[in-house]
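Q: I'm writing up a methods section and want to include an example of the input and output format. Could you take the sequence below and give the corresponding predicted structure tokens, formatted cleanly so I can copy it straight into the document?
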Amino acid sequence: MSPCKKCTAKCCKYFAFQIDTPKNKNDFENVRWYLAHKNVKVFIEKRKWYMDIANSCRYLDENHRCQIYEKRPLVCREHDTTDCERGSGKFDHDYVFRNMEEFDKYLRVRFSRRK
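A: Here is the clean output for your methods example:
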């Protein structure tokens, strides 16, 4: 049975993309700005930085199924259910920031070590 049959389409309810690793004060301020927005998280995984935006696909129905399955985008067609984040444990982030306060706490700890 397809693992999607028991799933609530977690992979269709957000998108994440890699962002530049912050290197200076302006870069860190940009990350703070991202986190000022609703439904946005920033995470670090294997030393790479990502922005995660919680926003469901417009083609999901009330049962979490794709209404355009036969015409879905390539990224959806290439998604391998054997590598699904639902239960694989492969998507454990080193750090997750849900708001500016969490990020500011991380920055205080990170930069206090340099003294």
